[in-house]
Specification:
globular, mainly beta, 758 residues, Maltoporin, Chain A, 6% helix, 22-stranded antiparallel β-barrel, five-stranded mixed beta sheet
Length: 758
């Protein structure tokens, strides 16, 4: 039973004092406003932007040229390489199924991972409605023009914006004309290809096309994956009216074979525990964006979308009920099918006045989900693949609905030429429901019906002050919220843990998460070419929604009182004509701030706490660190053009150690008999190198070596029960032992490619 302290906004006095201090100093002095160079979107709907230097947070941006320069495979690859405070957990061992963590909040494709980042593509929120997950394989990387990461609990971006919002803008035929063909091949039998084409249509139209495919065997055994993406965008500029219509389509098959016990890891890092772990996804999205200049000072903008997706998973798992001679089946084949349908409309009005830019918007989003799970017992073969011996049985059949209506406002006020006040807020009204179709139509012994309504007004305020031509100070205070998704409502009973993503159980009510962030910082230049930034952030979540695991996959969702994430970000960057470099450091302290008893049977301290009386429970106390998040991270990058047409780059990323899931109390100790593993994975550093050569203006050869020094490391872990010996043979249930499972990082690999321009 959780013991929860009453949530309080203890940051408010400090925040108001800090913001007042900045305003007071600014009023006492006068300065010159820095020229606006880069403009970023401050609202979900694409429209009028705000100069980056007037954003009251440590906003980060990446363009398509920078993504190409680092030869990033996808967004997780780009973010962990280039963005401070970002790291990935390779839980699944697939480059497209990584957990992306930013300031202690996560965007993940895996159900059961607490989601805390919202992701938008051309104004459309692409967090899937069934579990708020983000499928990185559905993002068309070849079509991305730029991305912006706005930190904090920014209320304007709506639900799930607890730690930040990632906005993606796609290319257009008028901004990216020409044709490119790219081919790449190398390690793991990887082969990928891209074709992009952009052109103007007459004097007012434009068309852009991007098609890509990715095929590899994977570095681990039995891990092939295929990704196919298509993006088409067309539009017109008709005087004061501009519009674009885009189609995004993907048809992918991913194999992610998950974590491996350390004893098996020592024998062969490429082997898998049980298999297969396959995810097939088909997705199609239509998005319409339009803007109309009513006058020189007034713009109207709109975004409308329709999104359809089908996901099928096939998971071969160990049979926890294996107990010969009573139960002789060693494996279980779990299958799921999820159909999701979403539609939405957003309208936005922006007025530009002499000293003010006021934006008001309204949005309506709704979704429907259908979920089916089946289970079939079977046997594990010599490769630990499950071979079904029984017919599949339906374990769960549910449908879910969600609808969110929001009204938001963003007001940028110039108090002085060098001082800007940002006020914003959003009111969210969300309805979420689940219906147990299995109980109704099949007579299943389940009770999955549930319904919740979540209403919240979230405010934010910030100040930016250009104290000098080379110095900008900023501060902000913001609040965001996240309502439980249908999967979380359907899997919230500690007595009936779910084997995600494959089962649902009864649904005690859940509360919405409320997040409050204070951020203070500065940015500027030490010299014309030397830029720097620094930021302090402090975020407190009330009624945080976490997935509590009691095994490798089983667990339940629950509200967990308060959690806290606070830290520091530092950055330096310098660019000369032929040489550029950047360095960043971030410190993160992510902790639980409430007491609770949770199930963690692989933890050596289970059943030892006087406060926790349940089987296999541990006591989590305020100050315990949240697993899966390194406390220190450092990144260093350099690019050099030694001669005309040549470019050489290197990127270093280093992280400190982290606690693993199941060790939420940070107290696990191995004894070498019943419990193995330290309860944490060690720190590591990885170096990548890139190079390119353009023998002609239209031909470019490029290559990349990842993990140059072939470091062996793990980026994620969990305490679980290992049923196999070091050679991978199944043991008698009495010999199963608690052990630490680790997500191994990929070994050294190299790829070569060619890019042709027409």
């Amino acid at each position: 039973m959780n013991t929860i302290r009453t949530p309080r906004w203890r940051l408010q006095p400090l925040a108001l004092a800090s913001l007042t201090l900045i305003a007071g100093i600014a009023q006492a002095q006068s300065g010159q406003t820095l020229p606006s160079v880069e403009v970023v979107g401050a609202t979900p709907v694409p429209g009028i932007g705000v100069p980056k230097d007037q954003i009251p947070s440590n906003v980060q941006t990446l363009g398509d040229k920078r993504l190409r320069q680092t030869q990033s495979l996808n967004l997780p690859d780009a973010m962990t390489t280039l963005m401070p405070s970002a790291n990935v957990n390779e839980v699944q061992g697939n480059p497209y199924q990584m957990d992306v963590n930013y300031r202690g909040f996560t965007a993940s494709p895996l159900l059961g991972t607490p989601q805390g980042l919202s992701v938008f593509q051309d104004g459309v929120r692409i967090n899937d409605p069934f579990g708020d997950v983000v499928n990185w394989d559905l993002v068309p990387r070849a079509a991305l023009a730029n991305l912006t990461l706005l930190p904090g609990s920014n209320p304007v971006f709506g639900l799930n914006t607890l730690g930040g919002a990632l906005t993606l803008q796609t290319k257009s035929g008028d901004s990216h004309p020409g044709t490119e063909v790219e081919l790449q091949a190398g390690s793991f039998k990887r082969f990928s290809g891209e074709v992009t084409h952009g052109r103007r249509l007459g004097e007012t139209g434009h068309l852009f096309l991007a098609a890509s495919m990715f095929d590899e065997d994977g570095w681990r055994e039995y891990s092939p994956s295929k990704v196919k993406q298509l993006f088409v965008k067309g539009g017109q500029h008709l005087g004061d009216l501009s519009w674009s219509l885009s189609l995004t389509h993907a048809n992918n098959t991913l194999i992610g074979n998950g974590l491996l016990p350390e004893s098996m890891l020592e024998q062969n890092r490429a082997q898998v525990y049980t298999r297969p772990d396959q995810t097939k996804t088909k997705m199609t999205m239509l998005a319409l964006n339009a803007s109309y200049e009513v006058s020189a000072t007034h713009q109207l903008a709109a975004t409308a979308y329709v999104r359809r997706s089908r996901t099928a998973t096939l998971n071969g798992d160990l049979n926890d009920d294996y107990d010969p001679p009573t139960v002789t089946e060693t494996g279980v084949e779990n299958r799921t099918k999820t159909h999701q349908r979403g539609e939405g409309l957003a309208l936005q009005s922006t007025h530009r006045l002499a000293s003010q830019q006021l934006t008001v918007g309204v949005s309506i989003d709704r979704s429907r989900s259908n979920f089916e799970q089946t289970e079939a017992e079977g046997d594990l073969d010599a490769t630990r693949a499950v071979v079904p011996t029984d017919d599949p049985e339906v374990d769960a059949l549910i449908s879910g609905k969600s609808r969110t209506t929001s009204l938001y406002v963003h007001d940028l006020i110039s108090l002085q030429p060098n001082l800007q006040l940002t006020l914003s807020g959003r009111y969210n009204d969300t309805r979420v429901s689940t219906v147990d179709d299995g109980r109704i139509t099949l007579g299943l012994p389940t009770t999955l019906d549930g319904e919740g309504r979540y209403r919240k007004f979230n405010p934010a305020a910030g100040l930016t002050w250009q104290a000098a031509p080379t110095l900008t100070l900023f501060g902000s205070l913001s609040q965001g919220n996240r309502a439980p998704s249908p999967i979380e409502l359907g899997c919230s009973d500690p007595a009936n843990a779910c084997v995600l993503p494959n089962a649902l159980q009864s649904d005690p009510p859940l509360k919405q998460v409320v997040s409050r962030t204070l951020e203070l910082g500065a940015r500027g230049k030490f010299a014309p070419q030397l830029q720097w930034n620094a930021a302090l952030f402090h975020t407190v979540n009330s009624d945080d929604l976490l997935f509590i695991s009691n095994g490798l996959a089983a667990g339940y969702f629950t509200n967990f009182g308060r959690t806290q994430r606070q830290g520091l970000e530092l950055g330096l960057a310098q660019q000369y004509s032929s040489f550029g470099w950047s360095a960043s450091y971030s410190y993160l302290r992510a902790t639980y701030e409430s007491s609770a008893c949770i199930v963690a049977e692989g933890n050596s301290t289970a059943e030892t706490s006087a406060a926790c009386t349940g089987d296999d429970e541990i006591e989590v106390r305020p100050g315990n660190r949240i697993p899966g998040l390194p406390q220190h991270s450092f990144k260093l990058g350099a690019d050099w053009q030694p001669a005309a047409g040549w470019s050489v780059g290197t990127q270093l990323r280093a992280y400190s150690g982290q606690f693993v899931r199941g060790n939420e109390n940070n107290a696990h100790q191995p004894d070498g008999v019943d419990f193995n593993g330290k309860g944490r994975v060690g720190g590591f550093a990885v170096v990548d190198m890139t190079a390119s050569w353009k023998p002609t203006a239209n031909v470019e050869l490029f290559g990349k070596v990842s993990n140059l020094f072939d470091r062996r490391y793990g980026s994620a872990g969990i305490l679980g029960e290992n049923a196999f010996d070091a050679a991978g043979a199944i043991q008698a249930p009495a010999d199963w032992r608690a052990e630490q499972f680790v997500g191994p990082g990929a070994p050294r690999a190299a790829w070569l490619g060619v890019r042709l321009q027409f």
